[in-house]
Write a structure and sequence with these properties.
This protein has 426 residues and is mainly α. The chain folds into two domains: 55-306, no CATH class; 310-380, no CATH class. The protein is built from 18 helices and eight strands.
Length: 426
């Protein structure tokens, strides 16, 4: 090669370096302009289970992986690393936003003004977050509880109270947006999609979702089909698809009906869970674990169940007993009369009968006892209070007993149109 040609090649290379920043810079510029979608994990595809999203909710779906990692950190295998679990919960890890920060589970749980019943029921802003943080920090309901109990609280409250609350918020948000005329994929349909993202999440992280709880409880209560699919899951998935179709067709009643069907099936599955774990609290070795699980599952539906549970009428004249009266107001406690239950013209009064809900007191066996029911002794949410007493994590006296809470939950099932076959049996 001549000296002249070598000089020309050197000039070309120097020119390339000066003008383009050399080959290494070209590579960096190519990375900067790379479509972020190319880096998206394969599991963030267009659908999860039998639901196909109408909008992009990948960031919300990714929170399910946070749940998996929180559970792993807080477990015994993770060394009960509650601080590590809390860091993922509060700071986020798997759902990055455009500004470099992370979407967090804590951000949702602590938010105020959300479209669910929890804050109004507990009379507390950010009530979901308050319950979860108590488990994280070992305070409140988890004060002085064991590592086992705190783990169950962290693992079960984040997945169930947290994600169920977010799911219901999004379904209600979709309805609110649709009522305002915002039916599209960037408004109501997007919110509805987020509901499924929080309930089921990516197929790969399904094991950390409320949907997985449906599968487990169906196996316990015999409410799965031949393929092992929970009746509650099949109904929920069908309702979510029907609701999305209704939004696309601007059919408001269809959307509301779908939301109500989802709520009904959430009440079924968490009723099953409460029934299971309160009945297992007589264990000599794992009673506190089962109590903690029952507590967390109860908190997932308490705000939607307690208002429909038995209220009580307290009677000082018959051994300070409380009669469960269904959903009543205080005036019903004044409505007991001592009467002839057999309606025999020649008979005598022998029955303490309530003229409001037509119930009979078996505790009051004479007129004085029947007169002991007074409105001043009305006990609002009596059965819910009893449930919370049984599930008081700081009260060891509740352990060692198997509880059947069916009677306490029956009015809830009546309200939501839930049958005994929907609940099944263990």
């Amino acid at each position: 090669m001549s000296l002249k040609i070598k000089s020309m090649l050197m000039m070309l290379l120097l020119s390339c370096a000066a003008m383009a920043g050399c080959l290494g810079t070209d590579d960096e510029e190519e990375k900067d302009t790379e479509d972020p979608a190319d880096e998206k994990p394969a599991w963030l595809d267009a659908s999860d289970a039998g639901y196909t999203y109408a909008s992009d909710v990948d960031n919300h779906r990714s929170l399910m992986n946070d749940l998996c990692e929180i559970k792993a950190a807080a477990s015994s295998d993770g060394g009960y690393d509650f601080a590590g679990a809390k860091a993922i919960y509060t700071d986020g890890k798997n759902a990055p936003k455009d500004d470099g920060s992370y979407r967090t589970l804590a951000g949702f749980a602590a938010a105020t003004g959300k479209n669910h019943n929890y804050d109004s029921y507990y009379d507390m802003n950010g009530s979901i977050g308050a319950h979860i943080m108590a488990a994280m920090d070992g305070t409140g309901d988890f004060d002085n509880t064991s590592d086992t109990v705190r783990y169950q609280g962290i693992a079960k409250l984040t997945v169930n109270m947290g994600m169920v609350g977010y799911t219901l918020h999004e379904l209600n948000a979709a309805i609110i947006k649709a009522e305002a005329g915002d039916w599209g994929t960037d408004k109501a349909q997007h919110a509805w999609d987020e509901g499924w993202a929080f309930f089921h999440g990516p197929d790969e992280h399904y094991g950390c979702s409320p949907a997985k709880v449906m599968e487990k409880r169906a196996a316990d209560f015999g409410t799965a089909d031949a393929d092992g699919v929970a009746a509650t899951f099949a109904a929920t998935e069908a309702a979510m698809n029907a609701g999305l179709t209704a939004l696309q067709n601007e059919n408001m009643q269809g959307v509301v009906d779908a939301r109500d069907e989802v709520l009904k099936n959430l009440v079924i599955v968490y009723s099953q869970a409460v029934l299971k774990y309160t009945s297992k609290m007589d264990s000599n070795t794992t009673a506190e674990k089962y109590q903690a699980e029952g507590y967390a599952f109860w908190k997932a539906i308490e705000a939607y169940a307690a208002p429909h549970m038995h209220d009580g009428c307290y009677n000082m004249a018959v051994g300070h007993k409380v009669m469960m009266m269904g959903e009543i107001d205080a005036s019903a406690c004044d409505a007991f009369i001592w009467t002839n239950g057999n309606q025999d013209p020649n008979g005598t009064n022998d029955t303490c009968y309530n003229t409001v809900n037509h119930m009979v007191s078996t505790d009051a066996t004479d007129e004085a006892g029947c007169d002991g029911y007074k409105s001043m002794y009305y006990m609002d949410n009596y059965a819910a209070t009893m449930m919370n007493n049984v599930l008081d994590l700081t009260d060891a006296s509740q352990l060692g007993t198997s509880y059947d809470v069916t009677a306490w939950l029956q009015p809830v099932w009546d309200h939501y149109g839930i049958t005994s076959s929907d609940i099944g049996s263990m």
